[in-house]
Amino acid sequence: MMDFILETWVSSAIERSKAGWMLGKGKPWKRGDRLKLLFAGYNGTRNMGSDVRVEEMLRQLRTILGPENVAFSVMSQNFQRSEGYFEDSQQVFLPDIFPPFLANEVPKHHGVVACEGSAFKSKFANALTTMMIGSLGIAAAQNKLSVGYGSEAGAMDPPIRKMCARYCQNSLVITRNEESRTVLRELGVPTELGTDTAWTFDPKPAEYGQQVLRQMGWDGTTPVLVVCPINPFEWPVKASVAKFALHGLTGAYKESHYRSVYFHNAGAAADRAYEHYLKSIAKAVDAFRKSRKVFVILVATERLDARPANRISQQLGGVPVLSSEDYNMYELVSILRACHMMASSRYHGIVTSMPGLVPSAGITMDERIRNLMRERGHEELLMNVDDADLEFKLLGALEKLASEGERIADGIGRTVVKNLKVMARMGVYFEEEVQRRYPDFPTRKGEWSWEDYLPSMNDSLHGLVKAYA
After folding, report:
1. Is 226 helix (H, G, I), strand (E, B) or coil?
2. How far apart are CA 176 and CA 266, in angstroms?
3. Looking at the whole model, is its pTM more than 0.70?
4. Nearest residue to 427 via CA among 137, 11, 113
5. Is the pLDDT of residue 408 over 80?
6. Are 248 and 280 in contact (CB under 8 A)?
7. How many helices (H) and strands (E) does the chain have?
8. What is the pLDDT of residues 44-70, one digit of tens each?
């Protein structure tokens, strides 16, 4: 019921914005103004993936449009947790109850960039998708720039599908894969094919990650296996006023409470599936470290992931757990790239490690890791979180990482360079959309290479481009 209320509330805000714009309310962009863009996403929660992709989005679009021509704002749910991120961008507070915020904040800008990866799906939270559609819809209703950048679409509940079809038909969504384009095209939403934007991220130097591993007990020579777990069965998050009231009065639903009026999926079936997932990973890693000399760490790339990471650590006798709560994104990615093998249920755990050529296997809950592994040609390194034989599949994948690491790294390098080129093409699409909406905007003139449509890259990425381009 609460999801329905949010959807209706946001739909009403879009309609009011459209009516107000038609009656002359609001100011369009004009020549000489800085182009004010609002980046709508799930930031300020120490979700490393969300923060990294937005950081690179900002760097790329500032490079293409010119820093002197733009003024960027980024939504954050907690300024303290996003402190030091998103250089030269203003951070604006995104409240849990967001419809009034969208109605007030979006019209202050000349356009919206929806920067959440899982923007159009019901898998995680209808509220999140409603917020993405609302941000794009209000901007489009005012004939402003309205772009989903590196977004992904999947199964949506019927009310969300209708809302997306109605309010995103005048937006442009540049998707991470062809499968997402198919979903959105069926709804009449204009699309182009793109990728994720985390490929160009420049973390702290490799020495930093190696130093942290040594502090955790690494001897400097033993191969390091990093595991990035999640709780795949606590999704979707749904809003519930009834649960919130009982939680406040009696403390009920404490274990499933996310924040405010939002609660995780819970129940006996979810608990059983979660226990199977944790035990399967722990048993596979334990068997692997008994057959090969390896140093194991667990990394929570999202604060919530510290819970499953600690559970697995306990079953492995207390191996180190590193969390995004304690390490910022520059530090955490450096640590991931200092490892030698990875098994991850976090999409961005894999993506951010790939420029470091870390051989990785994926334990997936949805299509994101599945699509990535298919693109790499590494489907034999892919498992599902609910596989009955997950323990044995994971053990087999870990053995492949150890014995075929060079072959796997070669496929990873080729995929990174391919995606760098696709990311550059995304920049072209974005520039063209700005020109379409605002013909007088001072875009760059002359001939430009594909690398000119990317933010600055470090020496490691330039080396990959030289090796695989």
Report:
1. strand
2. 30
3. yes
4. 113
5. yes
6. no
7. 16, 16
8. 999 999 999 999 999 999 999 999 999
